[in-house]
Amino acid sequence: MEDVIDTNTPTKVDWYDSHCFLELTMQKLVRLQRYGEETSMLAIDASNLLDESIRDRRAKWRTLAHRKYGISVEQVSMFLTSDNIVITFFEHSGADVLKPILTRLNSPQTIIRSSNDPSMLVQAVIDVVVDMSVPINKAVDEMFGELESAVLSNPTITQSKQLYVLRSGLTLLMDNIIATGGLVRTLIDHRAVLNMAPSNTDSTGSSASPSPQNANTSVHISATTQVYLQDVQDHITALQNSTHNSIRSAENLTSLIFNTIAASQNESVRQLTLVSSFFLPLTFLTGYFGMNFDPMPVVNEHSDMFFWLIAGPVMLVTAALLVSARMIRLGPLSWKWRRRLQSLGRRKQD
């Protein structure tokens, strides 16, 4: 009961003599809305409005896009008893999870009803909890498309901040998905747990703490449930791969932003260097002729002809050096285009 009340309990499975306790994390996509100075979260299906304060919600949701999307993190607790009773505890989204399950239970053709298996009900809850994370990846793909177009057209530092927020939310999503995958694998391997020896006792005769390695439990996970749990495991693996690719794309896009901005700054510095190199001889001559020498015929005769006789050839030599350096740098490219033009001319003659 302490683990149920504490909403920060990590994902786990505990096996006891008469029941099994499961703790997992549910993540779903939410739409952020602004109300004055506070940000509220509205679920995509518009069914739940979380009324917690921002300070209390920091550990329970993560922003994906500023004032647009976020990830809601909730705890789901389940008890599966040996007398075929399933008890579930949700923070906010119990109706969202149980609604599709009740729809399946109302149909006599579904296996969850025809099998009369409580472990299949546990599998159904885990399946819906995992499926609630699927819209997150779809929203991430949409945001990546918008950010990628903006970065390729006009990269800015603000976009890097948005990518950091997005990558932070994806990291939280990945961590919780991996933990849920471990829980599902534990349930799939429950058949091996049943074949193990009973729990060991210490020197005082009391039983050791229950764990999947030494628990002697009467809770049964059917073979049919294990088959369907393998399908849930496939969904988790797909989510992991998609989330990992999204995190890597965010990192690559962030690197592209900084590389593009750095290249643009380098080009600006290069142009300023060319301008400075062009006017450097003029600056030297201006400083020289601005000195107070006596006698200095050019100054005394109030004529600037001598200045231009020196500055003209110097500027021509400087411009020739700059142009020749650029031609040398573009030489291989010019030769390549020259060969292409020659090949096009021969094609026209043919």
Automatic annotation (TrEMBL):
What Gene Ontology terms describe what this protein does at the molecular function level?
cobalt ion binding; cobalt ion transmembrane transporter activity; magnesium ion binding; magnesium ion transmembrane transporter activity
- Top-level taxon of the source organism: Eukaryota
Q: Which locations, inside or outside the cell, does it occupy?
A: Cell membrane
Q: Which UniProt keywords apply?
A: Cell membrane, Membrane, Transmembrane, Transmembrane helix, Transport
The record gives the membrane topology as: Multi-pass membrane protein
Q: Which residues cross the membrane?
A: 272-293, 305-328
The main place the protein resides is membrane
Return the GO cellular component terms, semicolon-separated.
Answer: plasma membrane
Query: Known InterPro entries for this protein?
Result: CorA_cytoplasmic_dom, CorA_TM1_TM2, MgTranspt_CorA/ZnTranspt_ZntB
| Gene3D superfamilies, sorted | CorA soluble domain-like (3.30.460.20), Magnesium transport protein CorA, transmembrane region (1.20.58.340)
Is the keyword Membrane assigned to this protein?
A: yes
PANTHER family to which the protein is assigned, alphabetical: CORA FAMILY METAL ION TRANSPORTER (EUROFUNG)
Q: Which family, according to UniProt?
A: Belongs to the CorA metal ion transporter (MIT) (TC 1.A.35) family.
**Protein name, UniProt field:** Uncharacterized protein
Lineage here is: Eukaryota, Fungi, Dikarya, Ascomycota, Pezizomycotina
